[in-house]
Amino acid sequence: MSLSKSSLSLLLFILSISTIALSDGLNLTASHSADKLKQIPSLNRAAAAVEVNSPVFRPAVEHIFSLNLLSSFPGDLEISDYCRELLNIFGQRYVAYVSCLVPAARPVTVCQKCFSAFGSLRGAYANLSSESGPGNVSCSESLLRGDRLMVVNQLNSSMEELWLNAACDNCVTKGLQRLTDDMLYFMNTLNQTDDCFDKYRQGNHTELCKNCKNTYQGLNELYGRMEKNQTLCIDIEDSMNMTRRLWSKYYNCTVPREETVPVIAVSSFMLFLPIIFYLSSFLHSEQKKRKLIHPKRAKSYTSLMNIQDKLG
After folding, report:
1. Cβ neighbours, 10 Å, residue 243
2. Does residue 25 register a pLDDT over 50?
3. What is the pTM of this model?
4. Peptide bond into 107 cis (omega under 30)
5. DSSP assignment of 67-123, as one string?
6. Beta pairing partners, 179
């Protein structure tokens, strides 16, 4: 009995030692494999490239490999060096134009300061959209209509829309070479008005209103003619609005308008026109009523009444 117990105890002891040795071997193998993987730098970089918090790819263990979505395409699907160079030129001129627009946003000087940069950008886009190039190479299909987003088209359309809304074509010559003569003349008159304001702004504003009245009136009249001829752009509109605010709100100046009397006269006439109409209608109707009883008919009626009395 004691021998059998001793044998059972020995067997259990041997099994426990085997289990411990087996678990240690597995741990040693796993740690050795992990150390081997850490020694491979390319695998470490690949594992770091995979985003751990990806909503699509959520592995249960540490990342080792990554998916390369930017695989190389066949040569016939890549854009040519010529088109890539045109794209780079467009990008540089786009940045230059935007860099000009931002400082010109307030006060608005978009047309007079950025027309040259806009002309360069428009020329770069024209080269991209051209159907012909060296060796009959066309970049319009691959760069402008090659995908649903059409980034280049979107960027160019936004700049064209801004230029159109600013009405800069009214202040810049065709070909975007220089400012128009009307624009230059307005800027000169505006500068004269500003110089007058600067001369008298430190003193009594009453002197400013008196001495700068003629210059300010001349600027207003010029603006009115340009508005009538549709030669205004956003630069002129914004500068005129600022000048008017300075004159009326900041300096508290007023200018009597010569057309006030004719406007009042016309308004008064239009106000009394219905009264005149009804009064004339009433007098005309009364005159008709008087003419209804003619003297001859009245005499004949009297004679007829006398005859009837005699017969009766």
Report:
1. 18
2. no
3. 0.59
4. yes
5. --SSPPPPGGGSPPHHHHHHHHHHHHHHHHHHHHHTGGGTTT-HHHHHHHHHHHHHH
6. 172
